[in-house]
Amino acid sequence: MLTRRALRPFTALLDDLPSQCAVCRSWPARPICDACVARLAPPVARCPTCAIPVPEGITRCAECVANPPPLDACMAACAYEWPWPEYIAQFKFHGDAGWAAPLATLMRSAPWVEPALEQCDLVLPMPLALERLRERGFNQALELARRLAPGKVDATLLLRTRETTAQSGLLRAERLLNLRGAFAIEPLRADEVRGRRVVLVDDVMTSGASLFSAARVLRDGGASHVSAIVLARTGAPQ
């Protein structure tokens, strides 16, 4: 039986084949063509440590000034607005892992993402709770990370230690409390984090509570630099 690793060269080849753009239906094109990326995911001014949109000339959002997050940098490819929620839902909830490649390409188009991936030592996908992993069949953050930096991805170093109640409907402070103790570094591999530059990868960032909680664990474990790359960012903290 062929393993996922053995199939990876073939899936990478398929990712590069001409396709029809899912947005404008142009052919031949990438699954999301360059014109649609430029039109629907243009670079915007964002806070460098939480990726929330900010007015031109503002270097950091008020929340990050008042309560600096444990991230050195945070990058987002697009706003969580049409058409991206539909495609993210197909990828995340309907088992369509084929979306990983075009969405990762979209992430790579965001400012500062390429340098962050080149300069880091480790790329860690945000881990899923076991129950959600069973429901979805794969970790969407891992599939994105594998296409962003396949040689640096480690899917077992950062662990999800417990289930948490749903984050939706909770205030930001409640989300942070809900996630306390939900992440940990694999105990037998703790030395692998010390002094390393780490990039966290996730699909959607809302309040940032999950990413901040994971980043704090990595900080406590001795990581020298922790940044995050997300596909989509909601428009305002919740």
Automatic annotation (TrEMBL):
Where on the tree of life does the source sit, at the highest rank? Bacteria
Which SUPFAM superfamilies does this one have? PRTase-like
Give the Gene3D superfamilies listed for this entry: 3.40.50.2020
Residues forming the Phosphoribosyltransferase domain are 139-235
Pfam families this protein is in?
Pribosyltran (PF00156)
Per the record, the similarity remark reads: Belongs to the ComF/GntX family.
Q: What is this protein called?
A: ComF family protein
